[in-house]
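Extended Data, record Tagatose-6-phosphate kinase
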Amino acid sequence: MIYTVTLNPSIDYIVEVEDLRLGGLNRMKRDLKLPGGKGINVSRVLNQLEVQNKAIGFLGGFTGRYIEEWLRKESISSDFLFVSDDTRINIKLKHGDETEINGAGPVIRDTEAEALLQKMAVLNAGDVVILSGSVPPSLGADFYDKLISVCKESGAEFVIDTTGSALKKALPHQPLLVKPNHHELAELFGVTIQTKEEIITYGRKLLEAGAKHVLVSMAGEGALFITEQGVYHANAPKGTVKNSVGAGDSMIAGFVGTFSLTGDLMEAFRSGVASGSATAFSDDLADREFIEQLRPLINISEV
Ligand SMILES: Nc1ncnc2c1ncn2[C@@H]1O[C@H](COP(=O)(O)OP(=O)(O)O)[C@@H](O)[C@H]1O
Ligand SMILES: O=P(O)(O)OC[C@H]1O[C@](O)(COP(=O)(O)O)[C@@H](O)[C@@H]1O
């Protein structure tokens, strides 16, 4: 079974304005409220790919109920812990460019945190747990360490998609996959990255530190896949970007979903890129039909 863990879900409030006037009155041209948070996005795309999975994490308040209802309508299996504070609302402002303003997240009490860890007792060897996104500050920076310990004790594999020291500390525990984008990779090492060669150099460092597979996404430039066997590049198909929020999460869903069904790393890579691009070219996350349409357009070559 695949589990996604979203410690900090969100309603993504996507707001489009013609011309952003800072300090002035702006009127929305279009707006859209979507359930968000990285693990939840992964679950929604896994469902599109008909890969069985369960979404776990914290939800709270009216925003939490909105997300729960959406997931129920999409028949996404979930087991969230309800907390007393409200789930955050993240603003995604489209004004020719994309500007994001993400909330810090609700207060999670110690008893609520403990109850979530108890939920993880369902894990078995062979399960894959996808740990995605930021950690609400009140949970403490070491909460991912606790979740990783639970995964290791049960024999489950884990994937981690987060940033900074939480990602660094996870590497020696041999995550099945890490997927920084090229900006996050540079930030992780405190460097600026200009070339594909530099991405490979720093991506390899994640492998050396313990990750089993490394995917570095590069938005419209596609992605690099770095493994013990070699380094591979995939192009991204061309298209009109509608909303790239969730493209990275879709890529993880495509990769892990296809890998769990086929065990084929190259097909998983192809599926990851197709899923990411299908989301970038959609208002909401990718649907199955669009992913299948893009899949043959992805060319993979060894670097
Ligand atoms: N402008 C784009 N054109 C085509 N594909 C895209 C575009 N933006 C994202 N994608 C696809 O989604 C994947 C992940 O996107 P990226 O923006 O790098 O991740 P993140 O959302 O984590 O920052 C890319 O590797 C690519 O396949
Ligand atoms: O937990 P964080 O780091 O604040 O990220 C949460 C945000 O990331 C998203 O999951 C999108 O992530 P990606 O664009 O990286 O795939 C949004 O749905 C959500 O608003």
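Summary. The pocket of adenosine-5'-diphosphate (ligand 1) is lined by residues 181, 217-220, 222-223, 236, 241, 244, 247-248, 251, 273, 276-277, 280 (CB under 6 Å).
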